[in-house]
Amino acid sequence: MFMHTFYRLFLICPWLLPLLSFGQLPAPKPIFPTPLSPRIANYQIKVSLNPVTKRLTGQQTLTWHNTSNDVIRELQFHLYLNAFKDRNSTFMRESGGQLRGDYIDSDDKDAWGWTNLKSMKVKGGEALVWQFIQPDDLNTDDRTVIRVPLSTPLGPGQSITLDMAFDAKLPKIFARTGFSRDFFLVGQWFPKIGVYEPAGTRYARQGQWNCHQFHAHSEFYADYGVYDVDITTPKEFWVEATGLMQGEVMHKNGTKTLRYHAEDVVDFAWTASPRFQEATSQWKHVKITVLLQPEHADQAERHIDAAKAALAYFDKHLGKYPFPNLTIVDPPVHAMGAAGMEYPTFITAGTVWQIPKGIRMPETVTVHEFGHQYFMQLLASNEFEEAWLDEGFNQYYEGRIMDETYGPKTSAADLFGYRIGDLENSRDGYVHLDNPAIGPSFGNTWQLPDTYYGVLTYSKTATWLRTLEGLLGRKIMDEIMQTYFQRWQFKHPNANSFIAIVNEIAPARTGFRYGNDMNWFFDQVLYGDNVCDYKLVSVASKKQGKQYTSTVRIDRLGDARMPVDVLLHFADGKELMLFWDGKGRTKTFTVTEPAELIRAEADPKQKLYIDTNFNNNSLTRQPTSAPAAKYAAKVLFWIQNWLHWLAWLA
Amino acid sequence: MLTTLQQTLRSGRILTIIYLTSTVLGLLVAIPMYSTLTRLDGNSLAVNELLAGFDYTVFQDFMHEHGEAISPLLSVGRWTGVVYLFLSIWFTGGLLMMFARPSAPLSVNLFWQACLHYVRRYLRLFAVTLPFLLAAFLIPLLAGILVAVLAEEQFTERGLFWLVFGGFAVGFVLASLVLCVSDYAKVLLLKEDEQGSLRAFGKAGRLVLRHPLATLGRYWALIGIGTVLFGLYFLLDSLIGMDSWLTIILMLVVQQAFIFSRIVLKGWNLGIVYAVYEQYAGSRSEAVPVGKPD
Ligand SMILES: [Zn+2]
């Protein structure tokens, strides 16, 4: 009872803790000798978690630099957790309380969450007042963004330091963040300043705040900074977070405080649970830590191997991962809403007990979420407005890494002869939509066609990036991606940043095969909803004298105009590669050769990965019915089995 | 056990009749499937990928384009199952007659007569068995799932798995018990010229429970043999593959041999049931009457 009251006292007044602690927290050690990023938004946060009430008590000091040439008269902040405040937030209205298959238990009062900003003061100065705003919609019930007018404007190059106090109630996990039983994944939890975009940044014509409401599908957008975070939890909790642990102190009241330090990151998340099992490994300069559910301990190597494969692949093909560590959290099955999420140097994976090796769920999630260290953390695109730039690019790399590591046709699943590759799975998601022309990849996430956010952002983008790779060749593709990475790391790229680099490199390297620029490509696949489908309609070969006159007709069934190769194979073994710009509706090739034409194939190398049907790309004049016989025999066999199973009941 | 296997194999013509019946039903789907596949692939080169092995992209592209042509065929397949279920009920009397008159191979003529004579009894028995079967299988399974859902927080993932799997396993054991009892009831209906299906089911149940090893034990031994044969089939499938006409034909033979072995197993099972029944309960009467249909 005594301890209990004591405990509560410190949770209410965490700043009293040092009075009754053992030891002292060390001053943070710098990670990088010279800053890698502009370090615009820097936070010092002291937060304590009450695992009984699921509440956070926090104090933070934000130092924000005005790196623009503008005079700043107001600040804007995200209060993300207010998305879970009630049914009326924009997040809840858009999601209907469901995200990625997980639902909020809306009758459970404990399931909801919120942030309460208690005070904001200029350091050593005036108290500030704020008001809720809704920059994206007219939903005045949404409380996820505030504007804070400054009585003393902030001039170019000046900095402001703010002291803030806040409380938060964590939601029951269904969308990334919150608690589930005694597991905590604390993300989007502190009042976070938006991004001030000076004229010329991304699409900004004049200086403006980019601080969107929390939407169902959109993730985040933030400036780089340094984070120093002291986390207080009960002693028995295992804590891990973004950045590096600097030290910990035990308090006499049964709690402890851990200090974390992170540099050049765009966000800070942490986890706490009394039941993790830790596994560690080293890849070059990176220490990998996996926090597993005890029941998944035997899958530690699967996570580590996947993380190492991803680290090595990105290092070789894109650029260096500069951070000294990577933490992978495996959330419990009852907290699957927190699985598969990315934060700087800190990701969540997701697996289940005894999952067969042939179902590469932990591997895929690890590779994917690690990829966001590039497409989100190192290249801080705006995930509200251009989710394809992080999710789609990352999905493309997930496919490349998984296919190279686990086999191109077996990287997603390989079980009982049923085999699926990662990249072909992405393609399948997009090309086999009932209507692949449902929308572009480009657009504000909350304005993409309903329920098609995932496929347009992830699958379609990955598929057309693989198509771009097909058209240009992997070497040129890698050069483009490396240039994009070098030029835009620790900045805020947008579509134009990427397209400019493609146009700079691709035409020259391909001998202007596809024109002076590649805009025609992006107009169709990124901004457009054009569908690509080529069909080989006929092949014929007639002897005329000593020669054979052969004709091949190819039709463009879709409205996407893509250049396409057509391969002709003759009886004497000769092969002829022809080319069509795909601009018309149909094209007939006529060739005269000494041998008879045997078969023809449009796009034989499957460069046009967005082609919605590869099966109609080829025709042979010597068909075999063996495949049909094989499957008919199998169908016969399994129907007979089905009959005899039923006969067992009679 | 082996004597009954010999008795079963001796009646090759009857086994062939049953095999052909199920094969004709299977071909009702397989032949249209063959012509549909040949027609739809449009002489594409891509289908050759499916010859070498499974290819997800080719398969998905095909199903997306032609799934509507394939699914009615599979639905025909489902319905032939119902037809064959009733044909199996019809065959039961004839199959049992092979063991009721063990002195010589059963003539096809007598086989048909026996089928006809006993079909109504066995239809009634099926009607009695089915609710027991469903209850035996579903109640433990649903109970396992229900406990897992309601008390989810009390269990680990492993615990939840074993709870549901345990429900399934108990359901499977109980269902096999019901099916085994039903087989003994079939013999009872034939040998004792019993008319009441429910009464026969009850008597058979008592017999099975009195001699579980001789009855249920042998039943599971046959399920075990069937499972081993399935393992053998998958092994051969992975060794031979079906990537050329030669291996397709070879595997077709293997497949059909496997199907034939299933029919032998089914006959053998009834033979064992007949012999065990005679051993523990039956009067050893040489000839069972095949009169007019009742
Ligand atoms: Zn992602």
Automatic annotation (TrEMBL), chain A:
Cofactor note: Binds 1 zinc ion per subunit.
Cofactors that this protein relies on: Zn(2+)
Repeat in keyword set: no
GO MF assignments: metallopeptidase activity; zinc ion binding
InterPro entries: M1_LTA4H (IPR034015), Peptidase_M1_dom (IPR014782), Peptidase_M4/M1_CTD_sf (IPR027268)
Gene3D superfamilies recorded: Neutral Protease Domain 2
SUPFAM superfamilies: Metalloproteases ('zincins'), catalytic domain
Designated name of the protein: Peptidase M1
Positions of Zn(2+) binding: 368, 372, 391
Domain Peptidase M1 membrane alanine aminopeptidase: 305-523
One Pfam family named in its UniProt record: Peptidase_M1
Coiled coil: none
Active site annotation, chain numbering: 369 (proton acceptor), 458 (proton donor)
Keywords: Metal-binding, Zinc
UniProtKB/TrEMBL annotation, chain B:
Keyword terms: Membrane, Transmembrane, Transmembrane helix
TM region(s), chain numbering: 12-34, 81-101, 122-148, 160-181, 219-236, 242-265
Protein name per UniProt: Beta-carotene 15,15'-monooxygenase
Protein's organism: Arsenicibacter rosenii
Lineage of origin: Bacteria, Pseudomonadati, Bacteroidota, Cytophagia, Cytophagales
